[in-house]
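Blackboard transcription, Thursday session:
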Amino acid sequence: MRAVFRKEAVSELRGRHGVVTSLLFAFMTVTALGVAAARTSPTPSLAAGMLWAALLFAAITGLVRTFVTEEDQGTGDLLRLWAKPGAVFWGKFLYNGALIVLVAAIVAPLFALFVGVSPHDWALAVAAIFVGCVALAAAISLCGALVARAEGHGALAGVISIPVLLPVVFLGVGALRIAFGEPGTSGWVSVAGLVGLGAAFVAAGPYLFAAVWKQ
Amino acid sequence: MKLAYRILLALASIGITLMYAMAPPAQGFREPGSARILFFHAPEAMLCIFFFGWAAIMAGRYLLSGKKGPKSVAFDIRSMAANEVGFLLCFLATVTGMVFAYEQWGAAWDWDPRQVTILIQLLIYAAYFALRSGFTSRERSAANAGAYCIFAFLTVPFLLWIVPRLSQIATKHAGANGAVVGGGLDPTYRTIFYSCAVVIGLVGLFCYKLRVREATEAQEAIDNEISNSSSSDSRVVQPVRLRGSD
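(Written on the board underneath:)
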C-alpha cells in the first residue's frame, strides 16, 4: 500500500499532471462561478452548491486518471502481477484523498475570496469539506478502476462517477449552507450522513475492486 | 399453469384499473380526483428498490461465483434483468410523480428532495447500462457492471430513506409518507393501495422472468455459434502437399 502510494506521489512529482489539472480546473470553475455571481452576494445555499460543484468537477478531472493512466501506459498488468488488489486500492485511494484534500484546501479560500462568502461555523465547514473529499476519493477511485479498461473511458468515467457522487454533494451542500450562515441546526446531521456514506464507500471499495481488478 | 398465471395476472391488472377508476376522490388534496395516482406511483417507487436490491444480490453472487472455473452467467443475466425492471419502475414512479406534482403543486418539477433523489437514482442506473455497454469482453462487462451495481446500491438507503428525512430538508412528501407508511390511509384506499402494490409487483416479476428467459436464450445462441465455429475445422484451409513439390 505504501509502495503504491509512493509510486503515485513520485509519478505526480515528476509530471505534476494530476495536481495541476485538478487545481486549474477547480480554479477555472471558481472563476467562472465568480464571474457569474459578480457584484451579487449569493445566498448560503447557492454558495455551498457552487463550491461543491467546483470540487466535484475538479475531483473527476484529476482522480479518475490514477487507474486510467495505468492502462493507457500499459503498466496495469505489471501492477496486477506485483501487488495485491487491496494494496493497490488503498494506495490509490489514499493518494486520491490526499490530492483532493490539497485541492480543496487551496480552492476553498480562493472561492471565499472571489465569491465573497465566509463560513460562520468554521468547524462545520472544514468537517463537511474534509469528509466529503474522502467520500469523493473513495467513490472515484473505484469508478476509475471500473472504467479503466472500457472503450471511451474518459467520457464514461464522468458518466458513472457523477450520479454516485451526487448524494455526497447533496449532503455536503446541506452541511455547508448551514456553515455559511443559513439558519438551521442540523448541519452536523449532514456531516454524520457524509461519514456514513463515506464509510460505506471505503468499506465496499476494496472488495469490489478486488473482484474486478484481476479480470 | 403458465397460461393460468398469465390470465390471472391480466384479470388482476384489469381489476386494479377498475378499482382505480371507482375509488372515491381523496380528501385533503388540491385536486382530489388526481390524487388516486398514488395507487400506482407509491408502489412503483417502493418496488424499484426491491428490484435494485435483488440486482445487487445477483451481482454479488456473480462476482463470488466461478472460483474454480468460469463465472455463472445466469447470475449476471438475473442482475441485469432486475436492474432493467427496477429502472422501468423507477422511471414510471418519476413520471407519475410529475403528473401528481403538476396537478397538486402546479409544476411538474419542483426540485422537491424526493424528486431530486429519485432523479439521482435514475441517473445511477442509467450509468450502469452505459458502463455495461462500454466493454467488448462479456466477462469484463459483467464483472465491472456487477461491481458498480453493488456500489450503486449503497447509495439507495441514503437517497430514499435518509436524505429526504433530514430535518433541514423540507419535503412536500411529508404528508404522503405519514399517510402511506404511518397508516393514515382510510380502509378503502388502503385496500386498493395494497392490491395495486401486489399486482404491480407480480407484473414486475413476470417482466423480470420474461427478460431472464430471453437473455438466457440469446446467450445460449451466442455460445452455440461460438462452439460451432470453433468445431468446424473443416472450413479452415489446411496445408496440402503439392504433387511434385518434393
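Lecturer's comment: The interface with chain A takes residues 63, 116-117, 120, 123-124, 126-128, 130-131, 134-136, 139-140, 143-144, 146-148, 150-152, 154-155, 158-159, 162-163, 166-169 of chain B (CB under 8 Å).
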